[in-house]
């Protein structure tokens, strides 16, 4: 609070009663009021002399009044209304009152309206409020935010004309930059502290203060911060806090009552839509900015619930697709708010996948060298992660009785074949869908099963598929045929080497092809080779598990130790198929004649189990 002897207060010997007819007669008992001023329906009985000596507008109105004895004036659209006018009149009478962050904006605009300039009296109300703004408000971030929040209750033209809004916005941005430097030093001090809460509290404390602003002023503040050089991560943290404070509990009724979306939106829903769309526009565009993926999915859910514009939802989907490989299954489970539709919003996830694949394709074209297509290629690794994620997503939405076959197939076929090392997850999702939709025709079941590559199924999945009565007969035959090929390869010791050689030989670029086609063909064959190597690794892990089982059986049946030692050596010989050591081929051929019968029996026992 400002003391009575400060430059932001006005003193008199009289107390501070309410400004009314009783107040004026009590102060000036010997002088009756000679002018009545009406502000928004509230009348004030006052005296002309103290008013016309400081207010140019009242002086002009009094001069133009016809009845000079007891005139009555009405002030229309006075900023701040009767409270601001009462404070201005107290200033004219020389009464004591405080200029604070709560009333300074109203007082400044009321003084502008009443023309209380230096032309009529030195240190008039405009000068006094300007001094407080420049020396107190604009020097502090939190005070600037408080004053800016009070400007939301003022008519926009007058607040903009006197420059309060623009000056407060720039002051907040400038002080935020100062706080950023201070927080950098505080970060160093807090790094050695064990308390995480203390570390977070000493950084960007102003983020919470900005949540009191309306979305229009908040947008101007964030844009000013971006121009001033505030860190993108600080801007992101502020956006997240503002969204949590402003959109708390949005859409709860829409989730459980989708029919409500048919009615016309209320004013509150329109405000929420404006907030969501504005926050999406304000998201930092720098690649270095790390926007949490769960926040983007939360904003996408909000955008769907409040029926934001298509451009807004597409922008969020594009940002999510840029880091889709980091998403979790819970992130993808977006409830559908459309009546009669599936339980989950499959169309949105499909669009995100389209953007993700387009990003992978663009990154591949940007890579000019072949070294980027190695086993550690970031693009291929991201594709494998997304493939596993989508398989889990398909298994989660498959039990939905309202999920159409067309949408389910669209989610399956959008991913390329090389995005899956093994098809166990895809097989599980398709099996769940056929179990939850028993009315599927045989043709539709065949249409689903054609997406499963039996050569990419693990031993356990093949055993399950061979006994699965829901699968078409053709699918069961394909599974058994692939199992036979697998056993044959295991006995011969080739393990798909011929298949690899065939792939490699077919990938030799033709001289008639253009250089770009040759490059694309080589990239495609490179992906196939990596996929085959991944399959080999999976098969190797299965063989290692089989070796462990064999060793356990040897320990359980100690009486037949010689037989188990022989089986163990044969199992190690099978693992040597993938080791690539010198002499491995000679060892396999020497064991082939001796162990063919034992291998056949052991493989059959494994397939039955």
UniProtKB/TrEMBL annotation:
Keywords: Coiled coil, Ubl conjugation pathway. It comes from the Eukaryota. Residues 579-609 are annotated as: Disordered. Gene3D superfamilies: Potassium Channel Kv1.1, Chain A. Residues 33-101 form the BTB domain. The keyword Transport does not apply. PROSITE patterns: BTB, NPH3. Residues 519-546 form a coiled coil. SUPFAM superfamilies: POZ domain (SSF54695). It holds the Pfam family BTB. Residues 204-486 form the NPH3 domain. Pathway: Protein modification; protein ubiquitination. The keyword Coiled coil applies. Belongs to the NPH3 family. This is Phototropic-responsive NPH3 family protein.
